[in-house]
Design goal:
Blueprint: H1 3-14, E1 21-25, H2 30-42, H3 54-60, E2 67-69, H4 80-90, E3 100-104, H5 112-124, E4 129-134, H6 143-146, E5 150-153, H7 167-178, H8 181-193, H9 198-219, H10 232-238, H11 241-259, H12 264-278
Helix pairs in contact: 1-2, 2-3, 4-5, 7-8, 7-9, 7-10, 8-12, 9-10, 9-11, 11-12
Length: 279
């Protein structure tokens, strides 16, 4: 997912200011961004979404009972019956989550009448209900709906110029796929001896995290995205889903620490210690 958007959602979550009406627009993976946001709403951990707890796992796999993806049959517009059922569902208390989340994966399928009904829900619905709209172009939604929602732009998760893995990322992924502690230590020591910069290390960790995310998609039966998918198979065969979630969290956390100007040696040392906890 777009790292900038991910950081924005996490910051809003930490401050307790996640809006309950959101529009995701742009050329990136809008549905993935919406599910990540839904996970942030449901997650009860301090750093939400943690991507490790049951709520996050169910949200990302689209099996959470309180996250409803509203889509018409065979790509058609939402039926009147579907919209009525959704409106009734919105006023039913959550089963196990913090809130009820409704995701609309393609706003081209929402008619003007649909949007006017949903506008009333966004305005007057229960406080525990959230509505996430995916629209490649915000103009697909009525101005009245847009005025009631926060807007997030979703860029492609990997820009074209970043699709080629850095040599250091290749080395780290190969080490992770082998599942060897000694090999991991050698690789990380090699980074430090090679005087890898903080910015380069952050880029390496972000690329490896993207590959681990693709492995998790594959482990959940979802075809990985083309970019960085080459390592999805080896990683998914080496690790189970729980381990992959921990791996994604670890790589994301230390990439963030690079942004916070934590010393490279300190980051590498902490990574070696956490690696053993994942195995």
């Amino acid at each position: 997912m777009d790292p900038t958007l991910e950081r924005s959602i996490r910051r809003a979550s930490r401050s307790g200011k996640l809006p309950h009406g959101v529009i995701f627009s742009g050329s990136g993976d809008l549905l993935c961004a919406a599910r990540f946001y839904a996970a942030a709403l449901q997650c009860r951990q301090p750093e939400a979404p943690c991507l490790r707890c049951s709520a996050c796992s169910k949200a990302m796999r689209d099996i959470h009972p309180d996250i409803i993806t509203a889509a018409g049959a065979d790509g058609k517009d939402l039926s009147v019956e579907t919209l009525r059922a959704l409106r009734s569902e919105a006023f039913i208390q959550p089963n196990e989550g913090v809130c009820k989340v409704f995701i609309f994966p393609d706003c081209r399928r929402l008619t003007v009448q649909d949007q006017n009904v949903l506008l009333k829900l966004v305005e007057d619905g229960p406080a525990y209900a959230a509505f996430l709209f995916c629209a490649e172009k915000v103009a697909e939604l009525l101005p009245t709906v847009r005025s009631r929602c926060a807007e997030f732009t979703v860029r492609p998760s990997v820009a074209q110029e970043e699709t080629e893995l850095l040599p250091q990322a290749q080395a780290l992924l190969e080490t992770m796929a082998s599942g060897e502690t000694a090999g991991m230590v050698r690789t990380l020591v090699g980074f430090e001896n090679g005087k890898i910069t903080r910015d380069k290390l952050q880029q390496v960790l972000q690329q490896c995290r993207t590959s681990a995310q693709q492995a998790l998609r594959l482990g959940c039966g979802v075809e990985p995205e083309p970019y960085f998918a080459v390592w999805a198979g080896p990683l998914s065969r080496r690790f189970n889903k729980k381990q992959l979630l921990k791996l994604c969290e670890m790589l994301g956390k230390f990439a963030q620490e690079c942004e916070w100007n934590v010393a490279v040696g300190q980051v590498l040392g902490a990574m070696a210690a956490e690696w053993e906890e994942i195995l």
